[in-house]
Amino acid sequence: MSQTKKQKMDNSQINGDALLELDDETLNSGAMGFTASQLFIKNPACVAYTYEDIIMMPGHISFGLSDVDISTKLTKKISLKVPFVSSPMDTVTEHKMAISMALQGGIGIIHSNFTVDDQAAEVRKVKRFKNGFITDPICLSPDSTVGDVMALKERHGYSGIPITDSGEMGGKLMGIVSNRDITFVNDSAVKLKKIMTPRERLSVAKQGVELTEANEILKETKKGKLPVINDNDELVALIARTDLLKNIEFSKASKDAVTKQLLVGAAIGTRPEDRGRARALVEAGVDVIVVDSSQGDSVYQIQIVKHLKLSHPKLQVIAGNVVTPSQAIHLIEAGADGLRVGMGIGSICTTQEVCAVGRAQASAVYHVAKFARKYGVPILADGGIKSTGHITKALALGASCVMMGGMLAGTDEAPGEYFYQDGVRLKRYRGMGSIEAMSKGSEKRYVWENSSAHSVKVAQGVSGAVQDKGTLLRYIPYLAQGVRHGMQDAGLKSLDQTWEELYNEKLRFEIRSPAAQKEGGVHGLHSYQKRLF
Questions:
Q1: Is 508 a catalytic residue?
Q2: What is the pLDDT averaged over residues 515-521?
Q3: Between helices 299-311 and 274-284, what is the axis angle to 10°?
Q4: Distance between the two ends of the chain, CA-based, in angstroms?
Q5: Which of 81, 105, 208, 318 is 20–30 Å from 458 (CA)?
Q6: Catalytic residue among 277, 340, 430, 445
Q7: What is the DSSP annotation of 450-479?
Q8: Is 355 an annotated catalytic residue?
Q9: What is the reported pLDDT for 2?
Q10: Residues 6+ apart with CB under 8 A from 71
């Protein structure tokens, strides 16, 4: 019997009675929508589709929302609990974003607009992170003043500051200054060595202490801060009572199975000097490297992918960007463990406008995912994501994960400061192809070889601002729950089932007319307020 002969659902019984099945005439009439191959392969109009162009047909629900499994593969060897990846953009992913993404089951890719040493340091911050431990606290020296403490308190909102001989993390612990030490000091020029609580009077923990043990020490000593030191009395971390009180156990955190450290990725370019960058990142503990290029099918990328797999056999490598199987096959042959799909479709990207090359994202994801599946290579849908519905569609078309830039740029964990414009709280967001980002180093994403012929920069992105979205601790759970709702409505209990039904031609879609797209959104109101969660 053909795949389309009968439309059956899992658990297709109610109280022991079998559910009725559709007859062939109804099933093949378009009443149930159309298969992905009918939309994307048997495509006489030769049209490419975006996420907005398509809609999924509902399926039979025989399971609860909590039963929906959205765990997935990022690469051949890296698994994630949620299919979310933060983009390697300098207004999106540095160590704070990467830590928060990993804690909640995704992963962050550190951008390459850093010096080699600084990017490696960002990776180490993620690998050193331990929930509840502050591994990069602000420190002062004994010769710092009360005025310095007051300035930090005004800027950051706290005054419990460790004092080290160097005034930096990793220096020998000399004491600590708290709010009670400075409350009755009127002279801001007084040096901290005169008023700090000295080292001999401090309660400390040794490096390697568990969080539960540290919590007990804080309870017994009734202190607000607990310095963690090594055998040389050097400060290696700080534990704050307030952080312990609000500490959350992240059961879905993306961690290395052996070291239990958080997973983190980093981006590099395709130029010869990027081989040294990759070596420094591997030494820092990076788990996956993304070869960052707007057009991935080049001799330069093939060469560096081969180099990475030969020089660092255990390293996972994601190559791209690609939008066609002909691009993908060259990178798969070079040894790529994952592919990044998307070209010119980001909210801040102008590649299609400037270069006249690219592809509508829904079509790109479907075709590349279908092809890469033959080789066991997961694909990452990069760009074009504006809602949880877009995420669900990308996954339903074969993507293993989605990479997000603008969706995450307005969160607390994204780099940069908030500012107000017309009463709205915003953060800066720019494309890596913008002139501003290219001047900081991202030009190599668009120009692959060192040559004086490229002295004239051609922007393939813009700079702008996005609205405040709050903390990822609330935003990522919202995105994950939205995807679960979408999959449940489609009758899909897991991503594995989603892809099985996609390629067995059981999953059904339709193309939406412009009027249907309008009807599918908010309409007919004089005014409204849209709250995500």
A1: no
A2: 90
A3: 40
A4: 46
A5: 318
A6: 445
A7: --GGG-S----B-EEEEE--B-HHHHHHHH
A8: no
A9: 44
A10: 79, 80, 81, 82, 105, 494, 495
